[in-house]
Specification:
By secondary structure, this protein is an all-beta fold. 0% of the residues lie in helices and 55% in strands. It has one domain (3-97): Jelly Rolls (Sandwich), CATH 2.60.120. The protein is built from no helices and eleven strands.
């Protein structure tokens, strides 16, 4: 079952031009799953564990590009950007503003 979700807006504080805020978890609801940065701040998404077979990136939520065989790692998402994960066993996902 495919699902799409928005990453909630994160409360941030700006100190010397850098955004800081709390770390939050991502809940995966089925494969493939897509999620979008709905906030006004760039975020870093960390994906680890599970059994991931594909991670893709999109600026428009329609046209996705594979991330060259990466199956985990740290990914920056600007406001409006999307990530899509295909997996057998859901990974752990967290994000925070940067």
């Amino acid at each position: 079952m495919a699902s799409a979700m928005a990453i909630p807006v994160v409360e941030t504080t700006t100190v010397n031009g850098m955004s800081y805020g709390p770390r939050a978890s991502i809940t995966f609801n089925g494969s493939p799953t897509s999620f979008q940065n709905m906030g006004a701040t760039r975020i870093m998404v960390l994906i680890s564990g599970g059994n991931v077979s594909l991670i893709e990136f999109s600026r428009d939520g329609v046209n996705y590009d594979s991330l060259g065989g990466l199956l985990s790692g740290d990914f920056f998402l600007n406001p409006g950007d999307w990530l899509r994960l295909t997996y057998l066993v859901a990974p752990t996902g967290i994000y925070y503003p940067v």
